């Protein structure tokens, strides 16, 4: 029994739904598990529960699958993990069937991938979209979770699986005057589905974290004038994004099992070998070469050469100085850094 069974309950009218009681003659709908959130994690959970023969009820507040990739539709949104690793590895068939276009694909392509997964494993039929879970309490007497949704339904489950992610809630800063502001305003984490037209407009972007850095150059191309409000400067190095060659993709597909194994054995799920060498153990000249080659390849590769590039203060200071030098020496604006 999956979530669709609940459609009977939703048709009974709001008054009925808010007065549901768990009685012997009229028990609440019960499932092995309730899953919340149709991003990477929740979709995989549903697949695994089905494989295990367990019943599940699945709620998602959005209108489609994708999680952060459903919500973050802002101009320039893309991942910064290499695509060939930023995907599922539970099914070799899936891995062989899907081909990424570039090293760091944009949001539309990642969303297409998650929809492809949902279709391939027929996941959507068990997901109740546009439904927000509002409460989950463990009932000691029943030894089950009691889960409530915003449409007044309560269900019981042995397992409550929260796959709500850590970035799915938007944080709109409390700014004086926002409620009376007469222009349009948007939050990158809840971007409209239709294209926002910046042509001929004066635009302000607040913040230069990942989303700001990705969206600023794209909005700047279109807007009449762009002002960026920055509290704290970020370091960003060139992503070195590029289209993937067929031979490279084929090689990754051929090495599926080996790659999966090294991803599982790695610290963060990427099959890069981490160096055990401290940057301070090597000569200054060697360090400079490492920094420059990391800049040329994309920063993430730095951990393959030295292990303390983010933790050792002298190393960070020196590395930042190198980034400053390189950034100043290279005739690139933010646009080419993230293109
Ligand atoms: C722009 C951007 C770029 C990123 N790039 C990378 C990257 O390159 N590499 C990387 O590893 N990670 C990246 N991340 C991190 C990303 O969050 C994870 O990689 C991953 O997609 C998280 O998946 P998830 O399933 O855990 O959660 P999410 O994708 O956050 O999905 C959670 C879902 O839960 C739903 N939900 C939340 N609360 C409720 C509720 N109460 N009731 C019903 N539904 C609810 C939300 O609507 C959402 O759809 C990026 C994130 C963003 C925003």
TrEMBL record:
Family label: Belongs to the FAD-binding monooxygenase family.
UniProt cross-references to Gene3D superfamilies, sorted A to Z: FAD/NAD(P)-binding domain
Gene Ontology molecular function: any one: N,N-dimethylaniline monooxygenase activity
Keywords: FAD, Flavoprotein, Monooxygenase, NADP, Oxidoreductase
Pfam families: FMO-like
Record InterPro entries: FAD-binding_Monooxygenases, FAD/NAD-bd_sf, Flavin_mOase-like
Protein name as it appears in the record: Flavin-binding monooxygenase-like
SUPFAM superfamilies, alphabetized: FAD/NAD(P)-binding domain (SSF51905)
Coiled coil: none
Organism listed in the record: Brevibacillus centrosporus
